[in-house]
Structure formats: structure tokens, C-alpha cells
Amino acid sequence: MKFSFFRSTIQIFLFIAMFFSCDNNTENYTAFNKLISDNSGIDFSNNLIENDSLNYFTYAYIYMGGGISAGDINNDGLIDLYFTGNMVSNKLYLNKGDLKFEDISVLAGIEGDSRWYTGTTMVDINNDGFLDIYCSVGGKSSPKENQLFINNGDNTFTEQAKKYGIDDSSNSVQSTFFDYDLDGDLDLYVANYPPTSFNAPNHYYAFRQKNPSDLETDRLFKREGDIFIDVTEAAGLKTFGLSLSATVGDVNQDGWPDIYVSNDFSTPDYLFINNKNGTFSEKVKQATQNTSFYGMGVDIADFNNDNLLDIIQVDMTSQINRRAKANMASMNPRLFWSTVNSGFHYQYMQNSLQVNNGNYQEGIPHFSNLSRIAGLSSTDWSWGPLIADLDNDGWKDIFISNGTRREINNRDFFLKIEKKGVHPDSTLEKTLAMPSEKIENYVFKNNRDLTFVQKNKDWGLDEKTFSNGSLYVDLDNDGDLEIVTNNIDDKASIYENKNIENNNFLSLKFNGTKQNNLGLGVKVILFANNEKQFQELTLTRGFQSSVAPQMNFGIGKAENIDSIKVIWPDRNYQIITNVSANSILVINHSESRSQLEYTDIKSNKIFKTIAEEDLMLNHLHSENPFNDFEKEILLPHQTSMFGPNIGAADLNGDGTEDIVVGGSSKFATSIYFQDENEFKKSDTKIFDTDEVFEDMGIHIFDVENDGDQDIYIASGGNEFSPKSKDLQDRLYLNDGKGNFIKSDFGLPEMLTSSSRVYSYDYDNDGDKDLFVAGRLVPGNYPSPTDSYILENKSSKDNVIFENVTSKVAPDLEKIGMVTDAVWCDYDNDGWTDLILVGEWMPIVVLKNENGEFKNVSNLLGVDDTRGWWFSIEKGDFDNDGDMDFVVGNLGLNYKYKATEKETFDIYFNDFDKNNKNDIVLSYYNEGEQFPVRGRECSSQQIPAIKSKFKDYESFSVATLEDVYTKDDLEKSLHYQIKSFASVYLENTADGFKIQTLPNLAQTSCINKILVEDFNKDGHLDALIAGNLHASEVETPRSDAGVGLLLLGNGKGDLTPMQTTESGLLVSGDVKDIVKIKIKGIDYLVVAKNSDLLQFVEVQNKFLY
User: Fold this and answer.
1) Which of 547, 300, 505 is nearest to 391 (CA)?
2) Positions of E strands within 663-780
3) pLDDT tens for residues 275-314?
4) Which among 792, 796, 793 has a CA at the least distance from the CA of 705?
5) Ranges of residues in the chain whose predicted pLDDT is under 50
6) Beta strands in 610-750 (DSSP E)
7) Least enclosed by CB within 10 Å: which of 270, 431, 453, 504?
């Protein structure tokens, strides 16, 4: 084993300079310093020379730019750089040390010809110890064959793509080399983008998927001896896509490399899972919940240090209000649903950060898109994302290259084009008239908690360019990573990393096997600083670019690395210990041990999902078709999709628990009786009779104190008129044998769309009274509605509940849009109080004073907590004798954001005086308040907006008051939110202390909370779950939640237990959960909108 140790003189010099400066604060230094071209010697510029025959209107892909590849082509220990040009010669720069480079392109014979070069990858294709260069080719005209430049070992190259059988002419974007069949040699995947009209319909894409021509599919080439053969079809990879990148990684950790292909427009991405037999299966819809619409570049790496590979994919949505509204059309609902219904996927105009949850079903990983909570969702017109530790603190950061030479999505410009057309003689003139604006690349520092903070300016990476290809690379062997970008109409940017934190590092190089001497596919787990880092060696990353064949690990202030575990593609492994920091270590396959077996480690997990084929009952919830947006155009989400709810109790007196599942309108309530072997569906006719109702809250309790369980069902939904009789709640009385009759007169008239109902003897008279939560006024979001207190005045022979709300709890009248509540004696005075939450509501505490309720929220410090609260549950989490609460909000992984200073607001008013109230949502951007929705959507609700703002540009800079006027806004129903975070309320002597739950609990809204000691350590835990799939299509649905167990320690702390550790994975549109015992075993039954019931075994054998 070969070690090479050194200390960077640059680091020492920087330390001395900082020590003797007047101010030791490192903020006086930027992390990166742009090299001046005259000093570095790198003067490559990807200049585009548009003309009458080649411009945007004759070749729409003209602005995709060029790429970069990095590697030591002459084996002198310094990494060299190669740039591809579209209309200029390619350039190869030899690293001479001290960040100085020599242009050897002409001598090397590497400039290329008249081809339109796109991506580039370095690889030692003939295993002679010298890096070769493979170039992808696209463009409008021939020749289009990809090229392979073989390194002659003397700084010259010879083109031999045809000889190797990889002169693909399919309009390529990029390629990646990897050993897909683990036969020891490197194979090749080529990503191709067949030129396609930008307005091609989804049925065209769907047809081409099934019937691609040979030039329209990506290609897989298998190495056979000295040549490559096309095995695309045999491997199951022949399909159609507008591929902009293909990235390799073992995403399911089974030892075999998988492929993620990012596709543009409606064409769906592909996640090809390796079947370990020479074929792949496409699983993107099973593995991910949504993807980006305009899928661009991708990188795959473990950013959260959990030993699992995550995926970042970029799109082209700006975070700046002006650019977002001027340059991007609104997501057309018809296009969106056409994409979904074509069998593609849920695709949104946003970047995607797919976090690997590590739960596999049949080898399929499960990903959650956390780009919103991460702060990475909107980085403008983005091309190349890179995941790398840029400050050497041990946590990978993210760089994203940005910019398009001309604003080809500018709405005003192209609306004029649509009206007037473009004459063939004026294509150049129109192209040159197109708006153009340079923008910054983005860099984000990892906060180590699933979030990132933007550091463009702080790190000296705020130069405005048109950047396409990009890579990270250690050009000066000082252990930190430089950033390099390939720019259109500008010289390439080289940013020297100054390592201002003076953090330590470890660099790894590999001597692999004879046919894979670079060790591509090798995995390394590094242990240092009580942390674990994971990397997998793959070269093609981001967009049209490839990194050098080595690994760089930042290790913070650690002086030594505890150990390194190396796993080679052939499963040989080695463990290296006691490695000093700031070293370059060369690892040799020849010194590895024989094979490490990949095994499915069976741990003693608390939860276990029952496979679909083994379900005790097969119940599919069906949602009735209803378009809420038809009348409420700017509704933030549908309010007709809040079901189903679920209940469990022994309904027929046989000693086993039965299940009640609510149905949407036109679908009856279902009852399933448990017997020894299965659940049998009840044929109770009364529920069929009432199928018109939209079932919401299901509450099972003994109404008459006769020993059997009766059923209360709250009626909800948005399908009905505000005074419809179909909003009346229902009460079904049990005869003790599971037969039910409807109580026609037991409930007062309550024509309210309700959510949940809970019983408790609030007046201490010995029977159970009811709280009924009013959810909404149909068609009038966000108008407040009534909730109710129903006093039980039933006798043995006569069931009657009286509405006593106005008498005992007048605050409940028009209280808001209540989603959940809990009966609880929070102050231990012997009277049970009522705490409720809701959408656009604060947390409301109604103190029970001898049977009458008083709002004391302000006295307890929760009056200024307005949010989108969906759930609340109680528990004494700190063991101090009083009840604390977990309260579920929208979460922090949603498009809508709110802070104390920059709130999220809603206004409800008849702004255009047409006798119909309008919904206006607002947010803050760069310190100013703007409408959330763009000109197109806003004018659908209020047509006069198009007259007031003649074009998209004027609307893009219009503030909320500019659009709706200060006077009308002040007269509106107005709610304001300062936080969407879910919280823990600690009950103290001074009121409630609000504590934000950990970020893992903020990845989605929380619709249901269960509190008990799940891990049997004597302390209460909280299980949370929920998602929100009903958002309007411009707002990505909330679907990242997979359920989470928060472990309590008896002191009020709630610590997330990773899904991989707990076994809990409840994805989908979760609305309710109930615990039930089946054959002596505890199960969670999870109810989801438009989905099957999920059964999760609670394995009580687990001991703390």
C-alpha cells in the first residue's frame, strides 16, 4: 500500500496571514478566488456565432453549451482539464502546477472538427495506464458520431471511436462508463436527446416510448474484448426520452450499479434498477413520489451521511419573483394531468433533492423529495448540480451551474412571436432581439440537518455568467476542491478553493483491476470525528461533465481518520486504520481481501409493513371526481379530498376489534368484521343508503351506555352547497350484534362541512358529550365556520344530543377551519378542557370553567400561532404530571414559506366587484410582498388584471398592493402565518413553551399523531404521519412523508428514529391511522386517500 503525506504550503501561508491580520474573522475572506485567465493560461470560451442558418429558431437546442472533463492525462500527479465547444475547438489544458496551465490542444490533436460537441468523459478505455477522452456529439448538422480520443502516452491522441464500436450518432448529450454486469471491465451508457418539437404532445411521447427508433433511444454498450457491442434492447433499456443526463450509482445498496436518467419536458425520468442478470427494470414511479418537469443535470451522492445515495436533479424555476413570473408560464393543469394520465409521473417545475429512505421492497429504494426544506428547490435556469464537500467540514455541499444565453421562456417575447410568427428570413433578427440576462451560479453549504444555506456571495461564487458544464476538482493537490465552469460567450471560470476554515482532508486514489484500473464503482466508508462518510466512485456527474478518478474527503479538524472501509466492485474489501489527516492515499485492489457478501441485515425493528399480497383485507379508497378549482380558481389545495378516516372497535361483541372505513361521496361507508382468519365486509344496507355523504371523522363510542359501540360519522367535503342537507352528520346505533340503524332525530341540524368528532363528559354528568369540528364553508375558502358542543341528553330509550354551543362555548361559532382537537385537563383542575387546531387558525385553548368554555389562548402564549395545523395529540412527555402536546402543521418542505418578518398571507374579498369573493395568496420575496400566483392564473380569477398589467414583465414587478390596492386588501378577510413548522408544546407553569420539532418531522404535513411507548423504554413516544396530495398543480404536492417515530426520553425531548432503524414506512396520502389487535398482535391500520389500507405490525417483541 502506498502512502503519500504532505501539508499544503498554501494552507500554512493562509494561516499565517490570518494570524497576523487585524481581524481573525474568516468572514473577511471568500472561500473561492476566481483565477485570472492571463495568469492561469485557461482562455477557453464557448462562443456562439449565431447566423441566418444557425440560431434559436432554426436549432432550438443551441444554448445547451459544452462540458468539461478532468483527469491526469500525463500521469504527473496533476489533474488536467478538457473543455468541449459547440462552435469553437475543444481545448486540452495541461496542469503545470501552481494553478498554471498550458494549452496543448493542437499538439495533442484533441480539438475535434466541425462537430457540435456536448459532453465529455475521461476514462482509461484500453487500460494502458493513460486516460482517454470520450466526446458526445449533438447539433443540427452532421457529422454526429461521438468520438473517442485514445491517449498515445506522449500528450497526443488518436481518434478511434469507430474501432471500439462506440461512434454513436444518436445526438448525444453525455456518457458514463461503469461495469453494469460486474464482469470486471467497463461498459458504456450514452444519454441521447433526439431533437423534438418543444410543443410535442404527451401522446407523441407515449407512442415514442413504446416505439423508439434506433437513433431515439439512449444506448448501452457492453464491453466484449477490445470492442463494445450495443445491448440496449437486450438489457431492457430501449426507450424514448429527452435525456439531459445519465448518472450511475448503487442506489439500493445491493452491490450492482443502477442508472438515473433525467429527461426534459413531459418525458418521464427513468430509474433503471439493475436486475443482476444483464438487464434493468424501470422503477422511477415506485421509487420516487415526484420528479422535476424540465429535468436537467443530476448528481448522485450521500449528502446527509447516512450511507445511502441521494439524488439531486435540477430544473429551471427562479427563486426571484420577477424572473419567475416573467420567464415561466404557469403549469397548465391540462398538461399536468395529461402527463400523469399518460402513465408518466407527477412532475413539477422545481429542483428535486431525492433523499434515500433506505427501505427496499423487491430491491426498490424509496426516495422523498426534500428540495423545499433543503432550500434548493428554485435556482433559476440550472444545468449541472454537484454534490461535494467544498469546505472540508465532513458534510457535502452543493454547487449548481446556471444560465441560458437567451431567455427562451420569456412570456412576453414569445406571445408576440405566437401572434406574428417568424419569417424564415428574420430568424436571426428575432433571435438577437430575445431578452438575455446573465445570472449567478448557486452554491449551498450543508447545515447538517437536511437544510442548506446559500453562500454565493460569501464564498465568492456570485459571478454572473451563462454556465453549462461544471465540475469539482483538486487542481493544486492541497486537498480542497476547485470549481470549474464552461461558459457560453465567456471564458471558462476557475475558482480556487482557499479552504478558509483550514479544515483537514483525505484524498484517495485507486489502483483497480486489470480491466478497470481506475477502480470505477469502488465504495468507501470513512470514519472520523464520530461521523461516517460514504462515497462511490463514478465520474460522470452534473451536466455534460466528468470529475477526476479520485475521492476527496473533508474531515474538519480531525488529525486522524479512525478507519476506512473500501469495497471494490468485485466485492473484495479492505479496512485501513490509523490514517493521518492531509494525506493522499493510493489504495490497491491487489491488497484487498476476498469477497464481502451483500446481505439484507435483519434488525429488531419496531414496525413491519405487511406485504400487499398478505393483507388481511383488501380495501381501496376511491375519491369521487370533483374539481374544486372550477369555482374556486386560486384555491391553494382541494378541500374535497380530506378522507378517508378510520375507526376500530368490537362492533359485534365477539371480543375482536372490527374496522370502519369512511367513503367519499357516492361511495358507502365500509365495515369489516374480524373473525379467526380474515375480515369480512358487512352488508349493512343503511350505509349504502347514505352513500351520497362524504364521510370524514369516524368516532366509535357507547352513546346510550348500553354496552355496545355506536358510530358517529361527520359529513364533510366541498362538493355541496353551504346549506345542503348532505352536510348533516350521522349517528348509527348498534343493536349489540353489529347491526346498525340510523338515528334520525338524535342529532341537531348542523349543516357544516365537518372534519373530526370526539366524545368526553365535559360537564361531569356521567355521559359522553361531543365536540364536532367544523372544517369549512363549501365553496368559500377560507371563510370560518362553526364548530359545536353537543350535550348528551339521551335516555335508555331515546338518543338525543343538544347543540349547546352558544350557551357553553360561544367562541366556537365561526371559530375557523378546525381540523383536529383534543379533550384534556391541561391545568389539572378537575375539569376537562378543549384544545383545537385548524387551517389558517392559531392553536386555541378553551378552558372548561364548571361546564362553560373560555378562550385562554393569549394567557398561555399560543394566540399568535396561526398556521395550517392538521393534528394535535396529548401526552406527558416530560413526566411532570401535566399534559404536553405534539401539534402537526404543514411542515417546512412545501412551496409556501413563512417567518416572523416575511409572513404567508391570504386575503378574501370581492376584489373585482362581481358579487363573488376572490382568494389572494401572498408571500415575501427580497423584502417585498407579492401575489403568489402569476398573471395567467390571477387573471383567470379576475380578468381585469390582464387589462391593468398589459404584459408579464409589468406583472412580474407588481407588488401585492399594486395588483389589489391597499384599500381593498384592508377590507378583506385576512389571515397571516408566521410559521408552518410542526411543534411540541411543553406545558409549564408559565403557559405553553413552543419548541419546533426536528427537521425530519417537518418533511410533510402531519395528519395523524399516535402517542404511546413504542420502544418499551418507559417513556412516551410520538408516531406522526401524513401528506397532502390535493395541492393545485403549480404547488408540488406534499408527498415526502413516510411516517416517523419520535422517541421520548421522559424529559420532553423527542428524537427522530430513522426509517431504516424503526421499519416505519407509511407513504402516500395518509389521512388517518388506528391501532388494532389482530390475533393478539398489534397493528397500525393506515388509511390513505385513493389507496389501499396499509397494515403495519407493531412488533412488541422489541425491547429497549
Assistant:
1) 505
2) 670-674, 679-681, 695-701, 710-715, 730-734, 740-742, 753-760, 769-776
3) 999 999 999 999 999 999 999 999 999 999 999 999 999 9
4) 796
5) 1-28, 1103-1104
6) 646-649, 658-661, 670-674, 679-681, 695-701, 710-715, 730-734, 740-742
7) 453
